[in-house]
Structures are given as C-alpha cells and as structure tokens.
Amino acid sequence: MSLSPSTLARGARARRGIAMVAVLAAAGPVAGHAAQDIAFPVKPVRIIVPLAPGGGNDAIARLVAARFPERLGQAGIVDNRPGANGIVGTEIAARAAPDGYTMLVANQTHVILGDLYSKLSFDPVRDFVPVSLAAVSPLVIAVHPSQPFTTLAEMVSWMRANPGKLNYGTSGVGSPPHLAGELLAQAAKIQMTPIVFKGIGPAMTAVLGNEIQMTIPNLLVSTPHAKAGRLRVLAVTSAKRTDASPDIPAVSETFPGYEAAIWFGFLAPRATPPALVDRLNREIVAVLRIPEVRQQVVGIGAETIASTPAEFAAVMKSDAERLGRLVRSRGIRAEGQ
C-alpha cells in the first residue's frame, strides 16, 4: 500500500542504487547533451502551480525557480492557478505550447484525476511528460490531545469500538492527506469520515479547536503545535521513522507495508522535445543538489529526491495503478464536492 517513491529516496541518498540502474537500463539512452546546442531559453520559464500559494507544490516551485537565473540565464516565474482540486492550473499547463517554457508542479493527486472526475478536457497522464521528481515529504497522524488514545494502536481499537465516530480533516478529495487516511482505514479495517477543507491549514485549525478529531498534515505544520501541547502526533506515514523526529513511530510498525508520503515533481506538456526535457531535467537536478537548496527543502519538512524522467515516469505509472485501485474500490469521487 505504498504511496511514495521511497525506493527513489533511498537510491538518492545512496547516490544511485541497483534499482535506479535497472530503471535506466530499461528506459534506454536519453537525449544526452544535445540540449546544450538548442537556443534555449531566450525568455523566462513559467512554472504553473495548480494550487494556492503556501503549500508544498508552491514551495518547491519557488525554491527551484529562484535558481533559474543562475542556471538558465532566465527567470523562473511561478504562476499559481488554483481551482477545482488542481484542474484549472493543470488544464492550462496541458494546453501550453510544448516548447520548454511551461512546466507544472504536481503531486500524486495528479495521476488519479481521471478516477476522481468522469469528464476532464485533458488526460493527466498522456498529456504530460515527466521531467523530474523534486521532493518527498512524510505526513503524520495527528489528533487533538483530549482524545482518549495516545498511540495509533489505541486509536484503531477505539475506532473499531466506535465505528464512524472519528472525523479527519483533508485538504481536498483525493489529496495526499485524504489518500493517506483511506489507506489507513483500508489497512486497519476501520471506518472514519473524511471532512474536506480548503487546505490543510483550515483542517489543522479545526483539529486544534477540537471541532474534528484528527488530520494528516506534514511534519513541518504539526511540530510547533505538538511541542506546545496543542496537538498529539501518533505516527508518521513514511516507511520508517524519520531522522527529523525519530521518537515518532511509523504507521508501518503497527500495519506493516503502510506508506503514504507526498511526492512533488515537474511535468511538461506532451510533445515537448526530448532534448528540452533533458535540459530541464539536468538543470532541476543540479538545483536540487545545491546544499543550500537541500537544507531549504528540509526546512519545509521534505527531502530532495531528484530523478531522471524515466524514474519519475515509473513512479507515476505505479501510483496511477495503485491509487486508482484504491479510489475505485472505496468509491471516492470528487464531483459534487
């Protein structure tokens, strides 16, 4: 029930492992350095964020865009186009000219848009080409401290005795917090009700005010409240405990195989020439390897996870199949929300 590219994360930390070599070998040669001979760029590169400012997609886009002048000799312009669960901005990116001057920053909700909506004017998989993964961020199971449980196992026992009585806040239908909750409900065989908010911030406010019992934010958002005693963090959704908070147990310690982190990655419109995709990939990867940038990504509760286009394509394909099955099996639909 994996939700994040943990194999890629481990490979990045190990400076490319055997799994990465296998992916590259299967994918065949890339465009190499041919992109260096293309007169590109001659104007700013636009990075569309299909969500409001302040979230993980936005933060990653801005960290990378800020380095484009020194890497590309042109500005990186972040263009926030929120609306309709990311559909508005994603459609704009899909219709953009495939000339290397437009990219989209997406998370895994992107690959299941076709399962969430019956009618889309674009195909979220076929109308884009992967450029590079950028970062991965674990989430946490967080509850109001007045709740009658202090561990994940105790919470699950309580929910089994009180089916349907726990509400948890999400940042949208099919959002990473929503999917993480659905994966937990599936793994633990429990019932809990997702409550949709206009972002994880309002969901956190509802939990802090004890209006709902639980939410699933990232570590960065939850840590200050947990330290102040306003929030109780029960578990982290990564495959294992994080270095940042080694005292927080992983969900997988109670439910083996569980993993539900957020990935963020760059996409380009379909038909963008391979040489331009290769050039953009190399520049993004170079930015993500800058020590200062790596520390800035850590500062937003994430970890850099640069990849080749082929590696990112493999992650997207895997999540489209796995999360698509989850969405269909649990009857999750975004229309009418």
Please describe the topology of this protein.
Blueprint: H1 6-13, H2 18-27, E1 45-49, H3 56-65, H4 68-72, E2 76-80, H5 87-95, E3 102-106, H6 113-116, E4 128-137, E5 140-143, H7 152-161, E6 167-170, H8 176-188, E7 193-196, H9 200-208, E8 214-215, H10 219-227, E9 232-236, E10 262-269, H11 274-288, H12 291-299, E11 303-304, H13 309-329
Parallel strand pairs: 1-2, 1-3, 6-7, 6-8
Antiparallel strand pairs: 3-10, 4-10, 4-11, 5-8, 5-9
CATH class of the largest domain: Alpha Beta
How many distinct helices?
Answer: 13
Largest sheet descriptor: 6 strands, mixed
Question: How are strands sequenced across the largest beta sheet?
Answer: 2-1-3-10-4-11
Derived structural class: alpha/beta
The assigned CATH architecture of the largest domain is 3-Layer(aba) Sandwich
Low-confidence stretches: 14-37
Look up the CATH topology of the largest domain.
D-Maltodextrin-Binding Protein, domain 2
Query: What is the domain tally?
Result: 2
Note the run of SSEs as H and E: HHEHHEHEHEEHEHEHEHEEHHEH
